[in-house]
Design brief:
- By secondary structure, this protein is an alpha/beta fold.
- It has one domain: Vaccinia Virus protein VP39 (Rossmann fold), CATH 3.40.50.
- It is 38% helix and 24% strand.
- It is built from seven helices and seven strands.
- A hairpin with a 6-residue loop joins strand 6 and strand 7.
- The radius of gyration is 16 Å and the shape is globular.
- The termini are far apart.
């Protein structure tokens, strides 16, 4: 199945391993945030959010579906929509061959979501990709705001410059946002955001 899509097996495995590691990191970051104002925080022996806190996930730059695989392996009860940017390498056949759901999409345009909203939007490297395509990061984040449910989460992983630009835009959207240094001497950062239920 790798030959037909031009994907080398080591690329595929690397994507899965990095997605598995990323999911563990995201869960450890989101758990205290999800429960920070919860009346009954979980005990030490039960540190994970309830299975239904994050049900619908969109991976906006899905590559080979690694995040979807990581969710399955970790036993998370989440439905994942894998989106492959239309001008990137078309890995959608590989995603579909794994039995996952996926689409091609041009992120310079709006995404047809009716009637679904998402609990979590994830994008690794999408901001840099869109800048190289001449697309508006502001338009992308406004679109993400539209398709994200109130109190839903956004996790963006990218280089420092695009992440800082996105962080400034999220303040205008009145999202709660924080930039997290990955502490490995790289120029990669995480931007973790939550859309509030009511905007003040």
């Amino acid at each position: 199945m790798f030959v037909s899509t031009g994907v080398q097996q080591d690329e595929f495995l690397e994507d899965f391993e990095s997605s598995r590691s990323a999911l563990r990191n995201y869960w450890s970051l989101l758990t205290p945030l999800i429960f920070s104002d919860h009346p009954k925080r979980p005990a030490d022996e039960d540190p994970l959010p309830p299975y239904n806190m994050i049900r619908n996930v969109m991976d906006m730059n899905a590559r080979f579906g690694g995040l979807n695989s990581a969710f399955l392996e970790a036993g998370k009860s989440a439905w994942v929509m894998n989106v492959v940017p239309i001008s990137a390498r078309n890995t959608l056949p590989l995603i579909l061959d794994q039995g996952f759901i996926g689409v091609l999409h041009d992120w310079c345009e709006s995404f047809p979501t009716y009637p679904r909203t998402y609990d979590m939007l994830h994008a690794n490297g999408l901001l840099s990709y869109l800048i190289s395509e001449g697309c508006s990061i502001t338009n992308l984040l406004v679109e993400m705001d539209r398709i994200l449910r109130p109190e839903g989460w956004v996790v963006l992983s990218d280089k420092v410059g695009p992440i800082e630009n996105a962080r400034m835009i999220t303040t205008l959207l009145r999202w709660e946002a924080r930039v997290i240094d990955l502490e490995n001497d790289s120029d990669q950062r995480l931007l973790v955001c939550q859309k509030p239920f009511v905007r003040k």
